Amino acid sequence: MHAHKDSFHRFDKFNLKYNPIGESRLREIFMKTDNYIQGRYLAEITKEVVSDLESSKYQMVEYRVSIYGRSLDEWDKLAKWVVNNKLFSANVRWLIQIPRLYNIYKSSNTIKSFHDIIINVFQPLFEVTKDPASHPELHVFLQRVIGFDTVDDESKPEKPVYKDCPLPDQWTSNNNPHYSYYLYYMYANMASLNRWRQIRGFTTFVLRPHCGEAGDTAHLAAAFLTSYGISHGILLRKVPALQYLYYLAQIGIAMSPLSNNALFLTYERNPLPHFFQRGLNISLSTDDPLQFHFTKEPLIEEYSVAAQIWKLSSTDMCELARNSVIQSGWENKIKKHWIGKNWYKSGVEGNDMQKTNVPDIRVKFRYETLKEELDTLARHAPTKKQEQQLTKEDYVGVAGIAETSSQIQQYLMSHQNDQNNNNNNNNNDWIDNQMGSFPGAGLVAERAKLRKSSTTSNH
Fold first, then answer.
1. Which residue out of 135, 210, 219, 232 is catalytically annotated?
2. Beta-bridge partner residues of 99
3. Where do the segments described as Disordered lie (predicted)?
4. CA 230, CA 244: separation in Å to the nearest integer?
5. 415 is known as an active-site residue
6. Alpha helices in 402-440 (DSSP H)
7. Do 145 and 93 touch, CB atoms closer than 8 A?
8. What is the set of domains in the chain, with CATH numbers?
9. What is the pLDDT of residues 264-322, one digit of tens each?
10. Burial 372-384 (b: 16+ CB within 10 A, else e)
11. Residues forming beta bridges with residue 344, ordered by sequence position
């Protein structure tokens, strides 16, 4: 099942690797959680892999399992597979990946509109949040789920994004919605769900999609506005402005050079070392290890090959590992155990050298460089007098972007008391309270407003 030379720039052939001899039944028997034996074979393999992880002690993983959105009972089936097979481990958390396959389901008359996918994916989550007893296994499973991902072939051509897209219940054509459409409705529903789960004292979720591996660079813009972090992101090399914004917001980018090397970009052209040198929030990750790796330690393969090809120092390796922990969706107490009790603080104060092996001088350099860039933007941002004509709507999707990044997560944790006090303020204080999260947002919004007025006057 390994990806070979014939998969390069041919994602369709890569997908066929999961169907040996062109027969999907083999995949269904051995690699599915929902089949005639209730996924017992896959569960046994998973237990063996988890056992190896527990023996190594020093690897924590976030496994991806799929929810397709074809029916309402998918969540319950997946949760029962995990619970009944006792697939719980201190070394494992789960990410839910949602394939962008609306067009296939629509063609087979499995669904009537895109609205059906949204309902099938999110309705059970709202139900179990309201009443855990309604889906008991799902309630238990969600305590180990840390986020959502969306996957498919990004290189597929998409129709241009129009301002007036149909609503999900009106999207009934056989055409697949574009990437940003999927991402927006995932983000919107997750925002509501997370708020309710937070009020109820339950775990919340992050959005970390596959993004920027191929296709339109607009995918990266959509992810920038909605996501906590992304996987791949190699197309940022073609869009310096977006690359700069990802740097300013310190949005996590989990890169998989060995996967890219087989599918879209040869190893020597991978931008990871350049991104890392520039200070983007980069980590190394595996991607489809069954396809791209040859040993029982796929993550070690990623690190060892990267170290040899790009001449990474021990400090570089340790910084990448530290970034990986920060980007992950693991609980705060776990992160404290691995990289120090003050991990969420900025600069040297958040670095525990005894745990991370990252020298303070490296962390200080990263912090001061980023701070200098942000200070430069702040100096050129409009004054409060200039901002008076701007409304909260002018900032939506601009001032809020950085709130999804790991940097802002760290900031919020270190200012929890201030945040609680700010919740009591009225809406008139919105600009004062939120502008600090992304200096320069006012300038971006002002330019957008000027462009809008200029376009109107020209017409």
1. 232
2. 151
3. 416-438
4. 15
5. no
6. 406-414, 416-422, 430-434
7. yes
8. 32-207 (no CATH), 227-380+391-413 (3.20.20.140)
9. 789 999 999 999 999 999 999 998 887 777 888 899 999 999 999 999 999 999 999 99
10. ebbeebeeebbee
11. none
